[in-house]
Design goal:
The chain is mainly β and 945 residues long. It contains five helices and 70 strands. Among the domains are: 233 residues, Pectate Lyase C-like (3 Solenoid), CATH 2.160.20; 76 residues, no CATH class.
Length: 945
């Protein structure tokens, strides 16, 4: 975001006279508006304030001017029974306070000046009670009376009741200046604390309140401190504000009216508002725009067993939290380091920007539970960038000890996380991580990684690094976009289980690209040396697109079990391409380390159309000891697998192949692949495979149920293995067509391994193969598999025995035999090295020769009919059970409306070169004639009497 939406230029202009006022101060001058007026006695640098009018436990003072110079003290010399010292300024001058405000006992001090108030760098409080400074016009009491500062001519009706609200008119600014404070980790506890222990600035005693209420509030390096107490910053004008239930304005949040006109709050130059203590205090900020910049922070730390306070931030328009150019983060922080639970952080605004180290965090370093974070932003939340040392911007709920982390809930129109920012829940110690829930009406966008290439950048995540369990992550939105190396993930680095990850996007999910170190992705993982199980990953949308090397992953690198991936896309799932640095666009589960013993999870895709193109893959796999999971595809309309990528797979040193895979590249066994669809197309080198070609485990099984299967241009269905048992393939389809070097294979073994070929079972109406398409269940040194085909028609294939192949190659050595080396289409099940271990081929059809390219016409039957066509046509009958190449009657030719072949009488059989489907679904093999001439009516009619 290049341009700030905050109208702080306007604020600066309005407050110019206050912010640039010279360091000369008027004296404290009483007015004459009270029944008993105030008196001033000067003692050196101290103005001693006596008199005033007392009503019950309230003491009222009224001044025409009230300022305290540098090094000076304004001492309210009240009696000890006074609970509230209520001071107003009725003149036209602002109050410049650069000295000490002092009172006796535990009295609360109220300062009311509608003209404005500036606290300088040397301003301090020396009071035993709470402090309120306001530029309101009047103070509202519980009995309905008001003490006004703008109409001093009227003798006020003084009251003994409690102040419960403020009436703000034009409400000029309140400014607090100071040296600022660096926030650093405590050496003993690790908690975030202020670098300086002394309370420079405005500070009240433990358990007391500090309230600033004006039109605009600026803390320019100013420090506000209320240990275990309450801090309230209210920027509001032109309305009335009250506490709920008639509580004192010093003891409760002050609630503006719904139609309030808010001012702005800005904290800059490492300003702080700190309510830390034995218990964390409550903090409230309310304004039109709220801005924390240049390392400024609002924090409340709970140190002991008492529960921490809450932090409430409400902006009618925007909130900005931006780190300093020197690398100091800015933000809101609630933390507990003791037994007490931390408080909750609530943020409400129209927009929220966290940039360059801007943060909102709840955390625990003790046994107490960290508080929850809830963010309600109606339009846009943008978290972007890091500080120069790499501290990310973002929203966080953390535990670093035994206490559980809080939950993080984000409700917004749009969520944008970019350039290394994070939105996360984390468990580092024994405590469990909280849940992360994102509800975005329009979109969630997670983009890019930080400029330093930090792998933790640009993430939505819930993770655990210790014994505690990771939290669940759930996203509900219309559109989700993840790109440029960004990630949405749950993971575990320790003994705790990773949380589940669920994404619901009513319109679309697009995951694309990566960076030099990692792909963009949605993932759940068990990291290296972790023992916890991975979480399950569930994606639901109308359209899912994964492209340019992006990935959806559930993986394990250790002994923990990998999670499952379930994708449900109402319309379509499309995976396309790969990245230049070796990542294939993928949906996968994997056991991803040679020593990993955990089993991989399953992948299930439910959709109408599935398209996997240009090297993209859906797979389960294992590189370790654990077994891989199953891939199950339920596509009501179609599955299309096509092509290879231009990027080399670093493991195989070959281009990535598009397809559906269940692989093992370790000693664990591969899972299975199950495809259920109306139409399956595998073409241009793509595969559906259960694969153990690069590992020591056995391949799984491949099962396909489809109305129509087309394998085109090197399309492959395979269950192959290098060492273990070849997998089995079972296909149920109405029609199967294979063309251009396509193959179905359960081949097993290599030169150095004796794996047995798997079995192939095909149940279909029609199986047709042309242009060197093969079905094989061969082995190298082990036994060949078994091929069983049950079909109404098997066309275009030869079924050579081992002896046929030896005769064709002229040798008994078939170790180099590959069915693809032959020009015809074959069905084979042999052992290349051992003739006694050949498998079996069983084709069950209604007496149809599977090698038929075209059907030869029986010569005797044709001759008998032609000898006497008239008698055959007039006196005989002909029952046609399948035409077998004959015309329906002797007077007709074989139908052909387009062409006539000159060599139509040849007895040579021509291999089919393709097929076509009739209207009734029957497949016909076709071949191109070598010499085609235009059709002419060459038949001479026979005249029968």
């Amino acid at each position: 975001m290049n341009k700030s939406p905050f109208p702080f230029q306007l604020l600066t202009a309005l407050a110019f006279c206050y912010l640039t006022a010279p360091p000369t101060f008027a004296q404290i001058v009483p007015d004459t508006t009270l029944p008993n007026n105030s008196t001033i006695t000067i003692d050196g640098n101290t103005d001693i304030i006596n008199g005033g009018t007392k009503a019950g436990n309230n003491l009222f003072h009224s001044f025409r001017e009230f300022s305290v110079p540098t090094g000076g003290t304004a001492f309210f010399n009240n009696s000890l029974d006074v609970q509230n010292i209520i001071t107003r300024v009725t003149g036209s001058s602002i109050s410049n306070i650069d000295g000490i405000l002092k009172a006796n006992g535990t009295a609360n001090l109220f300062l009311l000046n509608p003209n404005g108030i500036i606290f300088g760098e040397n301003a301090q409080l020396s009071i035993g009670g709470s402090f309120l400074a306001s530029t309101a016009d009047s103070l509202i009491f519980a009995d309905g009376t008001q003490l006004g500062a703008k109409n001093p001519q009227t003798t006020p009706l003084l009251t003994i009741s409690v102040p419960i609200g403020l009436q703000l008119g034009t409400a000029n600014p309140i400014v607090v200046r100071g040296p600022g404070q660096n926030l650093i980790p405590d050496e003993e506890t690790g908690a975030i604390v202020r670098e300086e222990e002394n309370t420079i600035g405005l500070a009240v005693e433990t358990g007391r309140s500090l309230v600033l209420a004006g039109g605009d509030i600026q803390l320019q390096g100013g420090n506000l401190t209320a240990p275990a107490g309450r801090i309230s910053l209210l920027a509001v004008r032109g309305t009335e504000v009250r506490t709920p239930n008639g509580a004192s304005v010093l003891a409760s949040d002050i609630l503006p009216q719904p139609a309030a006109s808010f001012g702005n709050i800005e904290m800059s130059q490492k300003a702080t508002a700190d309510a830390s203590g034995t218990r964390g205090g409550d903090i409230q900020l309310a304004g039109r725009n709220i801005r924390l910049i240049e390392g400024s922070a609002v924090l409340s730390l709970t140190r002991e067993a008492e529960p921490g306070g809450n932090l409430s931030v409400t902006a009618a328009e925007a909130i900005e939290i931006i780190g300093s150019p020197e690398g100091q983060p800015s933000g809101f922080l609630l933390e507990t380091i003791g037994e007490g639970d931390g408080g909750n952080l609530q943020i409400s605004a129209r927009s929220l920007l966290l940039r360059d180290g801007g943060q909102a965090t709840t955390s625990t370093l003790g046994n107490g539970r960290a508080g929850n974070v809830r963010v309600d932003v109606s339009e846009l939340i943008e978290a972007t960038g890091t500080t120069s040392p790499g501290v990310p911007s973002g929203l966080f709920a953390q535990t670093q000890s035994a206490g559980a982390a809080g939950n993080l809930t984000v409700n917004t129109g749009r969520l944008l996380v970019s350039d290394g920012a994070e939105v996360s829940t984390t468990a580092v110690g024994r405590g469990n991580a909280g849940n992360l829930t994102v509800n975005a009406l329009e979109s969630v966008e997670v983009l890019g990684i930080d400029s330093g290439g930090d792998l933790s950048g640009s993430v939505l995540s819930s993770s655990t690094e210790g014994e505690g369990a990771g939290g669940d992550l759930r996203i509900d939105t219309k559109r989700l976009i993840v790109r440029d190396g960004a990630q949405v993930l749950t993971n575990t680095f320790g003994a705790g289980k990773a949380g589940d990850l669920q994404v619901n996007a009513s319109e679309s999910i697009v995951i694309s690209g990566g960076n030099e170190q990692q792909p963009s992705g949605i993932l759940t993982q068990v990291e290296s040396k972790a023992t916890g199980d991975g979480g399950n990953l569930t994606v639901a949308t109308r359209e899912l697109i994964v492209r340019d090397g992006a990935q959806i992953i559930a993986g394990t690198f250790s002994s923990g079990q990998g999670g499952n991936v379930i994708v449900t896309a109402k319309d379509s799932v499309e995976l396309r391409g790969s990245s230049s640095n070796g990542f294939s666009s993928s949906i996968l589960t994997q056991v991803d380390d040679e020593t990993a013993t955990g089993n991989g999870g399953d992948v299930t895709v439910n959709t109408r159309q599935l398209r996997v193109f240009d090297g993209a893959q859906i797979s389960t796999g294992t590189r370790g000891i654990g077994s891989g999971g199953d891939v199950t595809i339920n596509a009501s309309e179609s599955v299309e697998l096509s092509g290879v990528s231009g990027t080399i797979d670093p493991e195989t040193n070959r281009p990535f192949t598009s397809g559906l895979f269940a692989r093992t590249r370790g000693s664990g066994n591969a899972g299975g692949v199950n495809i259920f669809t109306d139409r399956l197309t595998v073409r241009n080198g793509a595969e559906a495979a259960v694969d153990a070609r690069l590992g020591g485990g056995s391949a799984g099984n491949l099962e396909i149920r489809s109305r129509e299967i087309r394998l085109l241009d090197r399309g492959v269905l395979t269950a192959e293995t290098a060492v273990g048992e070849g997998g089995n393939i079972r296909i149920n389809a109405s029609a199967i067509g294979m063309r251009d070097r396509s193959r179905i294979s359960t081949t097993a073994g290599t030169n150095n391994a004796p794996g047995n070929g798997g079995n192939i079972t095909i149940n279909t109406d029609t199986l047709a193969g042309v242009r060197n398409s093969d079905i094989s269940a061969n082995s190298f040194a082990g036994s060949g598999g078994r091929i069983e085909i049950n079909a109404q028609a098997v066309l275009g294939f030869q079924t050579p025995t081992r002896q046929d192949l030896e005769a064709r190659f002229g040798t008994e050595n078939l170790t180099e035999f590959d069915p693809q080396d032959l020009s015809s289409s074959e069905i084979t099940a042999i052992s290349r090295t051992n003739p006694n271990l050949s498998g079996t081929v069983e084709i069950n059809t209604p007496d149809i020769d599977p090698s038929s390219g075209l059907i030869a016409v029986p010569q005797p039957g044709v001759t008998a009919i032609i000898q006497n066509p008239c008698s055959r046509g007039n006196r005989s009958s002909f029952v046609n059970v399948g035409r077998g190449g004959l015309p329906p009657t002797p007077r007709e030719i074989v139908s052909n409306s387009a062409a006539n072949s000159e060599d139509n009488l040849t007895t040579e059989l021509i291999e089919a070169q393709g097929w076509e489907r009739d209207a009734d679904g029957t497949i016909r093999l076709v071949a191109r004639s070598r010499n085609v001439i235009p059709y002419s009516n060459w038949q001479t009619p026979v005249k029968c009497e």
